[in-house]
Structures are given as C-alpha cells and as structure tokens.
Amino acid sequence: HLPFYSASLASLTRGTGPKVIRGDPGGGKYQAVSHVAHHHHHIEAPVISVSDSSLKFTHVLYNLSPGELYEQALKYEKGSFLTSTGALATLSGAKTGRSPRDKRVVIDDTTQDELWWGKGSPNIEMDEHTFMVNRERAVDYLNSLDKVFVNDQFLNWDPKNRIKVRIVSCRAYHSLFMHNMCIRPTPEELENFGTPDFTIYNAGQFPCNRYTHYMTSSTSIDINLNRKEMVILGTQYAGEMKKGLFSLMHYLMPKRHILSLHSGCNMGKDGDVALFFGLSGTGKTTLSTDHNRFLIGDDEHCWSDDCVSNIEGGCYAKCIDLSKEKEPDIWNAIKFGTVLENVVFDEHTREVDYTDKSVTENTRAAYPIEFIPNAKIPCFGPHPKNVILLACDAFGVLPPVSKLSLAQTMYHFISGYTALVAGTVDGIKEPTATFSACFGAAFLMLHPTTYAAMLAEKMQKHGASGWLVNTGWCGGR
C-alpha cells in the first residue's frame, strides 16, 4: 500500500510524493510488537524513488490501534494526559469549536448549478486555484514532518452505500478521534481498501496565508467536491473533520435518492425507530442514548429505500455538566480508547471536573459506538415510526411537546427554529436564538427544500409521525 500513501501526499507542482516508510521514527518499537498483535501493521521497506522530500523519509503511522495512538499522544503532544477512567484528555488549541465563517467550497461548472449558494447558505465559494494553493501549503507542511498519521476508514453502515475515506493528519489526537468516529475496517477490508473515495489533509497546526484570496483569518477549511478532497489549515478542532465528511454525505447521498439527516436515532425493543433532529448541543446524543432503547447513532444518518443507517462509527457527546445519574451510558463510555476534548481535571487524581468550562463550554467525548452497551451493531434499522424535531427554545415560549401534522413538520423542518448552544460554534458564549434549515444548515450542500421534499415523501410513504420537542427553556425568559 505504500505507493498509495505517497500518492496521497504528492505535491502538485512537483508531481511526486515523498518516500514513505511504515513505523515510528522514534525507534523501531512497533517492529517488535506489531506483527504479533496486528499483522496488518507490518513494516515494509521504503520505496526509493525521485521525491520532493528526498533528504528524508516520511514515516506513515497507518491505522494505529488506540493503545499505539495513546503512546504517540502522551509522548509527543503537549497537553495530552491520561484521566482516572483511562480516557485520553487532549487540547484542541486556540479553536475549541467549529469555524463556519472560514469554511469554503470550490465553485466550478458542476457545483455552480448543483449547490446552494447565496443568502442563508453555509457554502462560501472559493475558486480551484485558491484551493490548490491551500492544498499545496497543507501537503508541503505534512511532508516536512517526521511522521504523519493515516486512517483508512468507512462512512455509512448501509453496505450498499458505503464510502471509503482517507484521513492524513499530524496529531495522534486527530487519528484517534477519527478512529473512533468513522467505521473501523476489519484487517481483510483494510487489505483490499484500494483508492479512497475522499481524502482529508489535516494540517491544522499550520495556518493558512491570510493574504490568500478568499481567506478571512489564519483558519481555512476547504472542500473540493470535484477532486474529492478536503484541506484543513489553522484549526486543530477535530470536529471540523467529522462535519466536513458530513457535508460530503449531504452532497453524495441525495444523488442516490438517499436522505442525509442531522439527527440521532434509536430503536425500541419492538423495532420502532425514532429520529431526533437538532443542532449541535440541543439534545440529540442525550435523547438517543436511552438505556431502554437500542442506539443506532447519535448525530448523522441516512434514510434510504431499505433502511435508516448511521453514517458514523462513534459518538461525539457534549460533556459539560455530565453526571452519572442523568447520563449513565455516556458517563460509562468515557474509558480507555475515548478522547476527551478540552476538559479540566485534578492534577493529582486525574478526575475530570465536568462542570468546569474554563477552557470552553464545548467540552466533548469521542468514543466508538460499541462503548454504549445497548448499541445496535451493525448500526441500521427499519424505517422510522417517529420523527422528533428538537427545538432548543432560548425564549421559553414553545410548549414542551407538540404533535405535528405533515405540513407542520415540513414548516418546522425548513425553518429550523432552535438555538446556537454556547461553545459549539466559535464565538457563541450563551444560547442564541437562530433559524437553521433542516436543523443543520451549516452542513447542507443542496437547497433545504431538496431535503424537505425527500423527508416529506419518506414520512408519507412509511407513515411516520412528526413531533416538536422543546429541549430549551419553558415559561418565557
């Protein structure tokens, strides 16, 4: 597979990738262990070829296990610590939430007509040339490092509509985060992985050049649908990778007549499936993680003609004010293998204080879905019986629960009245009323009416009921 990784890191101007070698540059520690524990991690001889990085090898740490990634993070990344329950606590740097104002999508002959542009749209345009400037900057930075982490993983549990993704990153924290959040391949699937459908270049430790056209800060998150690539510069917040892939699915799935949804999903013991739509931090993870029901997923789903399926292989739960009594399943999932983002803990006991928001209110835990005892594996189920819209009402005027007609469901789905919750987006300090189309406007690629029409058709076809639940305040503010 080594030529594949070299090609992924190829410089566009020079046309060739670096010489790559598997393993840790800090010593051949993995050589002794890896072919015993993980036969697919074996070290291969470097490919000697003409390279733009000819003075050194770029070491590729490929699909490492959580234990190996823990070692890398604790040894080489400042701000990485082991907590009392065995989770890996990390810091995401200056950015502790997403940066939607710095996200760009390449506009070309195809996307100009297909995508939602203009007023109200999250898609801010950039041209192909500027994307290539940023891509070159990211790839050159990654090639300058002694080692890069490469994850080859899948999106979508529906086997007929699975997407192959490759994530190239420079932090063990990012590699472990994506290991947890995407679907983990078996050794056999990895052996036959082939060319990915989409590649992320995460050079978030390195800023973009703010004088480059279309840039508004030193942060830039750029998606090129034609090249099937995403570039991250100037932010180490791991949620950018997860949500970038979600935007991709919002583009690819409707082309296959599959509805992509910003929702949680669970299933009762009788097979009744419920969808929970909502913005980040408004209750999707908490409500879908119910120990009386089977968890299909907490955030991103696809509704096809056959089933509803989880896009991801993990959960990304908000941790602020987390308690064992209120959310026992999430509490118990924070153990070895889990990434804790931007939490504060006791220096001596390493016990996390989930009430402390001194770093950010957007503290998070990323863990594989198997860490939830009643997760339904594989993560798909029958057509939903109930579609629940979660409105976090900052004004406190919506009733706690309302049953909706199909027309009312469409109205609330398109208008998406809710709140931006503190910390989830860079700069939000307290709940702020907002209208977010489809309860996820920040990730939509096509016009909201496209998704609403598909939802109406599927709800009508399968007899699903619509509900509006207020997860914010009651009694007026």
Structural overview:
- By secondary structure, this protein is an alpha/beta fold.
- Among the domains are: 62 residues, no CATH class; 156 residues, 3-Layer(aba) Sandwich (Phosphoenolpyruvate Carboxykinase, domain 1).
- 25% of the residues lie in helices and 25% in strands.
- The protein has 12 helices and 27 strands.
- The strands form 5 sheets. Strands 1-2-7-8-9-11-10-5-6 form a 9-stranded mixed sheet, with helices on both faces.
- About 6% of the residues have low confidence.
Structural features:
EC 4.1.1.49, Phosphoenolpyruvate Carboxykinase, domain 1, 27 strands, 9-stranded mixed beta sheet, single chain, 25% strand, 477 residues, nucleotide-binding, gluconeogenesis, lyase, alpha/beta
Layout of strands and helices, then pairs:
Blueprint: H1 2-8, E1 20-22, H2 29-37, E2 58-62, H3 66-76, E3 81-82, E4 88-90, E5 103-106, H4 109-114, E6 125-126, H5 128-144, E7 147-155, E8 163-169, H6 172-181, H7 187-191, E9 198-203, E10 220-224, E11 229-233, H8 239-255, E12 259-267, E13 273-277, H9 284-288, E14 294-297, E15 300-303, E16 308-310, E17 314-318, H10 328-333, E18 339-341, E19 344-345, E20 352-353, E21 364-368, E22 380-381, E23 384-391, E24 401-404, H11 406-415, E25 417-420, E26 432-435, H12 448-462, E27 465-470
Parallel strand pairs: 1-2, 2-7, 4-18, 5-6, 5-10, 8-9, 9-11, 13-23, 23-27
Antiparallel strand pairs: 3-4, 7-8, 10-11, 12-13, 12-14, 12-15, 15-16, 16-22, 17-21, 18-21, 19-20, 24-27, 25-26
